[in-house]
Amino acid sequence: MVFFSSGCVDTIASIGGTLCLQLLLLVRAAIAAAPPMALPGCPEWCGNITVPYPFGTHQGCFREGFNLTCVETPGQPAKLLVGNGSVEVLSIALLDGTVRIRSKMLRSVPD
């Protein structure tokens, strides 16, 4: 941030403080909106699904209770599963606080 601060101080006289402030706010918003990432050295993707920390597919890549399994079968799309189980994860959106899963619908038909 020192670069942006000193750059703005130097340019206030030429382009005005308002424009400089807007630029700083845009940079800050872009940094805040950056997509969540996996830990360094950990896979970020399982197929086309992002796997951001605290989730992870390898030991040392997730917080306790957030482990996932990536199943890659030749000729088929990769599947991301909760833990070592059979519940499939469709997407993870940390900013929304949601994890979408595939769930079978049960239907009871009266006799």
From TrEMBL:
UniProt key word Signal: yes
Residue ranges occupied by any Wall-associated receptor kinase galacturonan-binding domain in the UniProt entry: 42-101
Membrane topology, from the record: Single-pass membrane protein
Signal peptide residue numbers: 1-32
Species per Swiss-Prot/TrEMBL record: Eleusine coracana subsp. coracana
Keywords of this entry: Signal
Entry protein name: Wall-associated receptor kinase galacturonan-binding domain-containing protein
GO cellular component: membrane
Highest taxon, organism lineage: Eukaryota
GO molecular-function terms, A-Z: polysaccharide binding
Subcellular location: Membrane
Gene behind this protein: gb14124
